[in-house]
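MODEL INPUT / OUTPUT PAIR
PAIR INDEX: 1
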Amino acid sequence: MVHYFMKQHRSMAPIIYLEGNIAAGKSTLAANLKRLELFPVLDEPVKDWQDVEGHNLLELLYTDRATWSYPFQVLALATLGRRQTNLLANHPEGLTVLERSPQCSLRVFAQGLAEMSAIGQEHMAILRILRDAVAPPTQRPIHYIYVRTPPAIAYQRLNRRGRTEEAGVTIEYLTLLHDLTDTWLLREETNPVHVLDGTLTPEQLLAAALDIIQNLRGDVVPAQESQPIREE
């Protein structure tokens, strides 16, 4: 397998978002990219959602959507936006990779909850304002790497990893999220979207993602062998 390291960063390097369904394989990809230490890679802030002054809002969301859908989406946008702001302040010029974007929080997860009647249109209007506040326009190029995985396979992986909060997630819910992500990234998004086959092995997915990054920047060259993390 080929691995890579980064040469010196240049200005206006892109912001790259890793997107995909729950259990699509993007977290494993993010972990493997982070282990190479080529450029900053930030995970989805799941731990921030699991401990809000001792309260697990991710678990509350899945157990009582009617009550917790809107508060959770406010939290998700706030934490995703804070993470992005801090990263770009610390790395104003270099290429950066973030797992999940504020846009995804609104366009996929909040929209999905709205279609399930768990969030009202007045809530969606407020979330759009919040999205614009936490993720204002940037002059840096934005690219999306979409790990596109069939819902049935994502559901198998979800059950295999056995996170307590996800016990009530159904394949119907994953299918809804999959369809909303397709609509957003494949039909409506104006920034470049690079689609990866989520059924690839972690090694293949890592190599494919690095090829995309290499083509975007031209800063990536082969390095010494490093073993990727196996999918959870």
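PAIR INDEX: 2
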Amino acid sequence: MANGKNGTLYIGVTMNLPERVWQHKNHVNIDGFTARYDVHDLVWYQFFENMPEAVAKEKTMKKWRREWKIKLIEEQNPE
């Protein structure tokens, strides 16, 4: 998720993507990272068969350089 082009990026995992996006857009967790930085746009997602795989990918991507994340987003979601 992001708060606009060239803005803050957020990486997370969930078992219910539509609900989680709604929570971010509506600042359900007012003390959370996404509320603090107004992160509300879903810019990329990947489906996994199980949570351990998703968490492993999340941890890997959180270590990536910002440029790598932006490249992935732009390649798979050019809008």
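PAIR 2 NOTE: The first helix runs from residue 17 to 25.
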